[in-house]
Amino acid sequence: MCGIVGYIGNNNAYDILIKGLHRLEYRGYDSAGVAIVSPEGQLNVYKSMGKVSNLEAYCKDKNKEGVIGIAHTRWATHGEPSDCNAHPHFSEDGNIALVHNGTIENYKVLKEALLQHGCRFHSDTDTEVLVQLIEYIRLTNNCSLLDAVREALKEVVGAYAIAVIEKNNPDQIIAARKSSPLVVGIGEDEMFLASDATPIVEYTDNVVYVKDEEIAVIRRGEPLKLVNLENQEAEIDVKKLKVSISELEKGGYDHFMLKEIFEQPRTLTDCIRGRVVEDGRRVLINGVSDNKEKFINAHRIIIVACGTSWHAALLGKYLIQDMCRIPVEVEYASEFRYSNPVLTSNDVVIAISQSGETADTLAAIQIAKKMGAFVYGISNVVGSSIPRETHSGTYIHVGPEIGVASTKAFTGQVMVLTMVALAIAELKGTMTQEQIAELGKVITKIPDLVSQTLKLNDKIKHLSLIYTYARNFLYLGRGYSYPVALEGALKLKEISYIHAEGYPAAEMKHGPIALIDAEMPTVIIAPNDHLYEKIVNNVQQVKARHGSVIAIVTEGDTEIRNMADHVLEVPEVPECLTPIITSIPLQLLSYYIAINKGKNVDMPRNLAKSVTVE
Ligand code: M6R
């Protein structure tokens, strides 16, 4: 939540900062701002409510000259979205400007103390407290900006990634992080900083991921320096970025979400590359084989995640239980962290997070580690916090997901969970080589089968017109299709703002059936699996109450075809692989309904891609 960008070098900072904000807009888009020190030594701060484009319009006639600056795109936590609550915030004397991603939990106490000292505040934010505190320390102790930032951060409880500049010293940016991400890019005679690498990638591929409680001292003409809060220097570990610019652009599609839906054949190929080998006969997951004792001896696996990743986690439960015969529990990370969990060193905790930065998932990992469990991460963003916090793990390798609604990350997560389950099953001997090879072979065909499924696009586009103005939707599925129903409902509600509920199909008769009437469409995920006959009953129950049914069925289905109002046929795959296929039409359906309603599918209201606050 919130994105920060910074630049120091010889080029026009404004252009680089604005471009960076556009790249980070997925992290928050209710207001944006920029602070630049002009060649005349002015600290020019411009802020505007709404998207980055509003800020650009606002800045049109302003003085944007300068070769050092910081910028911010906001997802409001403290104080409503408004010009004055937008970042950067600046100090009373106008010397210091600061941008912040995170939350200062003890801001009220700090604010009270600063008010006693005569400070005045102009916003409702927690962030302004931090910049006033830095200024107060700077003036009281007559110290450098670095020392003032160090001292101020010692007072802070909460999460932060910050960047600070000052008018009187236009040759340095001080940046720091704790629990919110921060990357520094090292170019030729210039340096960049950002919440993730996407604003940096077109200028340099040399990056340093700043660690918790480290402060980056970025000075013109000097190498990057990292210090801790006690001013002790830390090692600089320069990494090479592997992201290409084309992955960050829409590539001819109207929206990132549509591009990401259509990318899935390729992203799934990347996800399985080098992992399902020898024509499917072997499944190699290094994180599992390197820790085989942990998995073989696990008494229990607990999967923690949020949102879409939690739906993937539910599928992980079915996969691991079916293939490895290990009991699996699935927990919302936000509940797990406060549930006084019982864990032992015989437990394996799997944390799933596309962004690798979700605050609740990170907190759950820390608790699990403290209690002695082995923690395995499944993430997409290389170098993000979760892969660094976990003992081991697997990247899904689906490339940057920019659309706020998760699509290709979900199928990547499910694919990785499938491969992890097969790898554990091989180690434990709970599946035969033949069974593994049979599934492995189909896995290698999944990208093609997803391509085939995407041919439903036009049919779904047409179908979406019929349901654009439905006010509620019910999604039903059983077994492996139940998490798919949850995910389909989440996709629809987050981008079209239509109320949608996912349910295990058999639960319908215990309550939701009361909702069914001619106005309530039901999406039923009914591939040809061992629960097919059961779900046929649910279709009948909905039809008997005049509800309309959109059914996702396996090619060649006749029974449901004769009952449902609309059928979307998908290729046949073994039951455990159906979620990757059946989730595709649901992604498209939610996309087109949202488009018909004129919604911004890539940046739905109130949401942000990376949830780094509680
Ligand atoms: O980055 P994470 O996978 O940890 O994010 C978890 C959720 O915030 C995320 O999946 C969210 O539910 C998506 N917007 C769903 O499309």
Provide structural commentary.
This protein has 614 residues and is of the alpha/beta class. It is built from 19 helices and 27 strands. Strands 3-2-4-1-10-9-11-15 form an eight-stranded antiparallel beta sheet, with helices on one face. Strand 5 and strand 6 (96-104) form a beta hairpin. 5-amino-5-deoxy-1-O-phosphono-D-mannitol (M6R) is lined by residues 306-309, 353-355, 358, 361, 404-406, 490, 494, 607, 611.
Brief summary:
The protein is an alpha/beta fold.
Please report the total strand number as a whole number. Answer: 27
Measured by DSSP, the beta-strand proportion falls in 15-25%
What ligands does this structure carry?
5-amino-5-deoxy-1-O-phosphono-D-mannitol
Which bin fits the share of residues in helices?
25-40%
Describe the largest sheet. Answer: 8 strands, antiparallel
How many helices? The count is: 19
**Mean pLDDT across every amino acid position:** 95
Largest sheet: spatial strand order: 3-2-4-1-10-9-11-15
Q: In angstroms, what is the radius of gyration?
A: 25 Å
Unreliable parts: none
| SSE class | alpha/beta
Taking the alpha carbons of the first and last residues, their distance comes to: 10 Å
Q: Globular, elongated, flat, extended or rod-shaped: what is the shape?
A: globular
